From TrEMBL, chains A, B:
Recorded superkingdom: Bacteria
Name of this protein: DUF1989 domain-containing protein
Domain DUF1989: 4-169
UniProt xrefs under Pfam families: DUF1989
Phylogenetic classification of the source organism: Bacteria, Pseudomonadati, Pseudomonadota, Alphaproteobacteria, Hyphomonadales
Organism of derivation: Hyphomonas johnsonii MHS-2
């Protein structure tokens, strides 16, 4: 069954080992920030640093493994209709909108949405680290290191699949940052099989 | 007074707000993994994701601010004789040597050294996230995202300075990974003024 995450909101759910999570971009050009924790011990979390190190690549796609801080496989990327995601940035937050966008009354962002969604699982705000930002297109200048957030490469109904390698708590959003989704806040869909 | 961190070891210490930490590469081509925590509340830690987002740059140098997960300034980079550091990878660990190098009896790496050094401050192993890897030279292919760890650009006695924006616990290593330091394990020096 397909679940819909409304624009600028988020959710969290259990994903059992062996289950497949499909993250779908129903309208195209939308981003979904994903975080994950070992369901039996949430001190073990998705680690960008470990995953990038073991893949020797910043951009991960089909066949790549997302590792935990304890160097254990958490998720493996399956079919990937987009092939470009970000794994360097933290979820957008009140402070992101204040510092980067100069908003006077900033939205609480993906950070706020994940905090609310993860609370019932006993996962504290400080445990939200660098996310696997599904469909997020961050261009890099290899000389200067400058990054620029571009509209995602995803078209309507594109998706990426992830198979769980352990029992997980997964947090997932429909991104709240204009820069990430070409200033058109859209829903995200997902299904678990 | 200059302190020396012996090859393949690490240390941790308090750095008061306003103090300046100078990280020195006495022989050249060595890396020092740095992590930092709010001394009054170690749940607040150095965040690669926040810092890269606010700088809009992967490579940080003079004038750039290293932010915490709570979006507060922790350290500001001062004089920087090298200008190239990494902020995407986690400290090398037993698993790094096992997975990337195929070592049968792997060294415990910067992760192990930081775990030992941070323990007296009550900071647990799972709290060691992506480090600011001083002098680490990670080349990036902007098209494929492939990364390759190159010898640091640092020459003997090059240094980088960091001014503390809050009272901190800082962990610092002389890196244990051959790839990072051109397969010559060397000391790191530092001073606090």
């Amino acid at each position: 069954m397909i679940q819909t995450i409304a624009p600028r909101t988020g959710t969290a759910f259990r994903l059992a080992r062996g289950q497949v999570l499909t993250v779908i971009d129903p309208q195209g050009e939308q981003v979904s920030d994903m975080v994950a924790y070992n369901a039996d011990d949430p001190e073990e979390y998705l680690s960008s640093g470990r995953s990038i190190d073991y893949a020797s690549r910043l951009f991960l796609s089909t066949g790549d493994i997302l590792f935990s801080n304890r160097s254990r496989p958490m998720l493996e990327i399956g079919e990937d209709r987009v092939g470009r995601h970000d794994f360097t940035l933290t979820p957008c937050s009140k402070d992101t909108f204040r510092i980067l966008y100069g908003d006077k009354t900033p939205h609480h962002g993906c950070q706020g949405n994940l905090e609310q969604a993860l609370k019932p699982f006993g996962i504290a705000p400080d445990r939200i680290t660098v996310a696997f930002n599904v469909f997020m297109h961050v261009a890099i200048d290899a000389e200067t290191g400058e990054i620029s957030v571009r509209p995602p490469l995803s078209k309507a109904d594109d998706f990426t699949r992830f198979r769980a390698d352990m029992d997980l708590i997964v947090g997932l959003t429909a991104c709240s940052a204009g820069q990430s989704n070409n200033f058109s806040y859209k829903p995200i869909q997902y299904r678990v099989d």
